[in-house]
Design brief:
By secondary structure, the protein is of the alpha+beta class. The chain folds into two domains: 20-63; 71-228, Alpha-Beta Complex (endopeptidase fold (from Nostoc punctiforme)), CATH 3.90.1720. It has helices at 20-35, 40-67, 91-105, 134-144, 159-165, 171-176, and strands at residues 71-76, 82-87, 167-168, 181-184, 191-195, 201-204, 211-214, 224-228. The chain is elongated, with a radius of gyration of 26 Å.
Length: 234
């Protein structure tokens, strides 16, 4: 009780965000005070506090729900524009969410060659002179999802590098695991996609931009190899 007879609500100076458990504890505390208030005026003051803390609980629940599911985070780029990353959820959930997001939002552009730009896997590179091809996208997807670079920073980033650096796995493994590089063609290969993990299906970058495909999309006679990378956070 304050000096003038009103409610002196507990002061909480949180340097960290409230957890759902703590927010609900504080709500129950306020509800108890409201229920046992000695006068109508004090009860009404605690009622206002209860409403405020009910809102806090809803916000904490919403925030924690977002944190546990993949979602887009916007970052200011050094050139003044913005690029995006995916946070929340498991590595495989982030990769698949990133592919779906890019499919819906990325601008149409494909170029084998040009300047290599980082940070544009979800929207595509900003300029038509920038490189934007299948192997670029495969590697940049990992970066956008906070995962370790499949090529460990190797500046030579093409299907041959992916074949060399990745762990050879079977078609069956690729059909049941998300993130496997599916490389088409003999020798160094001519195209790569990312396994979805639900059958012989991939996400890929080509023409049109960022679309689905299959392990067999180039028909019989085309060699297909599979390379796995550990989905480890950077």
């Amino acid at each position: 009780m304050s000096k003038n007879g009103g409610v002196a609500a507990p002061r909480h100076h949180h340097r960290h965000r409230l957890s759902e458990h703590e927010a609900r504890r504080r709500l129950r505390e306020a509800q108890h005070h409201e229920e046992h208030a000695p006068t109508r005026r004090i009860r009404n003051e605690w009622k206002r506090i209860v409403r405020k803390r009910e809102h806090q609980v809803k916000e904490v629940v919403r925030r924690e729900r977002v944190a546990h599911h993949p979602h887009v985070v916007e970052h200011k780029h050094r050139d003044g524009g913005f690029h995006f990353t995916i946070e929340g959820g498991s590595p495989t959930e982030r990769l698949l969410y990133a592919c779906r997001y890019a499919h819906k939002t990325a601008r149409l552009h494909y170029l084998e060659g040009g300047a290599y730009q980082h940070g544009w896997a979800l929207t595509n590179v900003p300029a038509d002179a920038d490189r934007s091809d299948c192997s670029w996208w495969y590697c940049e997807l990992f970066a956008a999802c906070g995962l370790r670079d499949p090529l460990s920073g190797d500046p030579i980033r093409f299907t041959g590098s992916i074949l060399e650096k990745g762990r050879p796995v079977s078609r069956r493994y690729a059909e049941t695991h998300t993130g496997v590089a599916v490389v088409f063609g003999s020798g160094a290969g001519f195209h790569v996609g990312m396994s979805i993990g639900n059958g012989p299906n991939i996400w890929q970058h080509g023409t049109p931009t960022f679309r689905k495909g299959t392990f067999d999309q180039f028909g019989p006679g085309t060699e297909v190899r599979y390379r796995a990378f550990d989905l480890v956070s950077r």
